[in-house]
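Replying to the earlier thread about multi-chain prediction with a worked example.

Input:
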Amino acid sequence: DSGVTQTPKHLITATGQRVTLRCSPRSGDLSVYWYQQSLDQGLQFLIQYYNGEERAKGNILERFSAQQFPDLHSELNLSSLELGDSALYFCASSVVGELGEQYFGPGTRLTVT
Amino acid sequence: QQQVKQSPQSLIVQKGGISIINCAYENTAFDYFPWYQQFPGKGPALLIAIRPDVSEKKEGRFTISFNKSAKQFSLHIMDSQPGDSATYFCAARGYGGATNKLIFGTGTLLAVQP
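Result:
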């Protein structure tokens, strides 16, 4: 158990809908990362937050957004969902610094029908 | 330049054998190279990591070999066990410090036969 929690484990929704994925980082970790894992794209970095502020962006679609709250939990919002958004979404957390080892949560499996 | 190339895509090893997975990168700004192990239905788990100022790091049966001049690194699993059967990802960290985003290889599916 990495100490990173994610809810829900599974999510099934229809095209055009909006969903919110939630992540709680390990105790003491200020940085949260979101990754998408799909068969065709592999593990792709989406976005990083550090202590409530956006720090880095990857290939995140404009339909996707995220935020980190004062209690350090993070939410990833996916809107106008398309079939191609079906994937595993992972949250990771780390301390920021020279090591910055990232620890991943168990993921949320999103299925868009 | 942001890619990490990983090979092979899949690997079958007999129990007790050595599993070797290779990765290559181009961006010399990468400063941290972790390996992750992922079992079906689970999140990636950090296995071992190395920085480019070290040529080798060993933890138990797992060893990373790093060749800075060739921009290549590899994972060696000694005395491979059926419980090691999983997907392995190499990764590289771009721009250390506050932006620790990881760039992942495409993964290697390892099957260790009893």
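The mean pLDDT of chain B is 92.

Feel free to reuse this layout for your own posts.
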